[in-house]
Amino acid sequence: MTSPPMIDGAFARWLASRAGQALLDLRTEMGFADAGALKSAGDKVSHDLIRTELAKWRPGDAVLSEEDEGSRLAWAAEVNTGAVSRLTADRVWIIDPLDGTREFSEEGRSDWAVHVALWARRAPSPHGLVAGAVGLPAQHRVLGTDYPPAYPPMTVEAATAGERKIRLAASRSRPPVFLTDLAEDVGAHLVPMGSAGAKIAAVVTGEVDAYIHAGGQYEWDSAAPVAVATATGLHASRIDGSALRYNEADPRLPDLLVCRKDLATRLLAALQRHSG
């Protein structure tokens, strides 16, 4: 096998692509008769592949993966031990090997993803993300910071009617309870989708205008998609407007807003009215 690209953004894309192909192969091999077994196998296959490649090609970097033992533990900020070396590392890969296991296990669904992001201590942005890729294997594409997509075009409604009918990506199974009221307030309609990565990718590509989440997530759920979204020029923040921050002692990052910049002020104001 040839060596992967050495530049971090291209490496993230390469890694997401390799894991995505392994997941597609697994779907073909196992089929969909046993959804639980397919979910478990998918998590393991992708996690093991990504961990192996990072150990080989980025041995000096720390890793935070959803599938690591103890990944959800919140550590005291002053902890400085080998057990949580990511807290003192200069570079940390934040990984979701399979975002959207439910969709992955359903035949015909393509709204699942592989997330690969790199956080750096000396990054110029508050979120600290310097590279990232979102693999959408069943859609046969990877969105990455090495070649960020062009800023998404205006919606057809906005371009033809002079008005913006906002399209909000929403969870298929557990949308925030306030989201229906918020959508009515701003004149939006909800577009149900699967994984967080697929929803943020849809904002990046212009299929929807915004994604709001407030139901509880972890850093790996959004790191790679946020890296790509901000490289594209989109707005990304907590729902109170504060900065998203990664590689924190507590990996929980329960809420976020990703949207077109021209909608950020309007949506943040609506969030103040409806998310309290």
TrEMBL record:
PROSITE patterns: IMP_1 (PS00629). GO terms for molecular function: 3'(2'),5'-bisphosphate nucleotidase activity; metal ion binding. Signal peptide: none annotated. Mg(2+) binds at E66, D96, L98, D99, D221. It catalyses: adenosine 3',5'-bisphosphate + H2O = AMP + phosphate. Keywords: Hydrolase, Magnesium, Metal-binding. Its cofactor is Mg(2+). Pfam families: Inositol_P (PF00459). InterPro entries: CysQ/Inositol_MonoPase (IPR050725), Inositol_monoP_metal-BS (IPR020583), Inositol_monophosphatase-like (IPR000760). One of its GO terms (biological process) is sulfate assimilation. This is 3'(2'),5-bisphosphonucleoside 3'(2')-phosphohydrolase.
